[in-house]
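ok so I'm stuck.
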Amino acid sequence: MKKTGWIVWLLPLFFLWPGFAWAQGGEQAGGQVGEQAGEQAGEQAGGPVGENYTIEVEGRMWNVKLDSTVKIVESGIGTDVNLVNDLGFEERKNFFEGRLQVKFARKHKFNLEYIPLKWDADKVVTETIQFSGQTYTVGARVQSSLDLKLFKGGYEYDFLAGRFGFLGGTLDVLVANANVQLKAPELALDQREDRTVPIPMIGLAGRVYPIKWVNLTAKASGLPLGSYGYVFDGEASLNINPIKYLGISGGYRYFVISVKYNDNSLDYRLDGPFVGLTLRF
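replied:
not stuck anymore, here's the structure
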């Protein structure tokens, strides 16, 4: 794993560890008057702004850096193809992301997330490319595209929740739909691969309130696949809540799918900063 990957694995733990202790203190205080009364008492006593809601809607703009290498072999023909260097995809691009959270009770939440990503390129290749049984020779004009849709949904249980934050576990399913096309008119080649893969993920989510209208939030989830690779999604953010029903945020996210199967491989990495706006009801 690259150095960046190690940093993002450890970064959420940096935020979640103090959240464990702080949330535990809030949990003990809130338990004296019951969950609902404890939350109301926390608000009245100067508790965190923005935690008393049923529905939370968030829109984000994510500045993504693409670092991906794909190898698809058919009939023994297939080489590593770097989407940026070999095909000419944009290395940096902005994408919109939508999120929805429904809080059933103080500790129970349902999360939904959707992000569509799309790249297009038109390049005269400087190295021979072999992809899924076909060969694109040096000097050929290759028109390519990647249309990737990520849908993530799941359940969160905050086993610690109090005035100073929360710490919980998550169980999600990530559904990834990828449509890849390579076309070389001069060589009479036109290939398209369309795959949809569901991936279960487990993780942690935590939040700490240094002051009642500012919080630090971190989330990390993934799935180890042994010798086949791994999937990981991690982020950390600073969130400001000027009023109860409105929040603004900024942070950094790292997402990777690294999978190997027989002679095929996919090392797909996205990372970069994001900004967001949150509405609560």
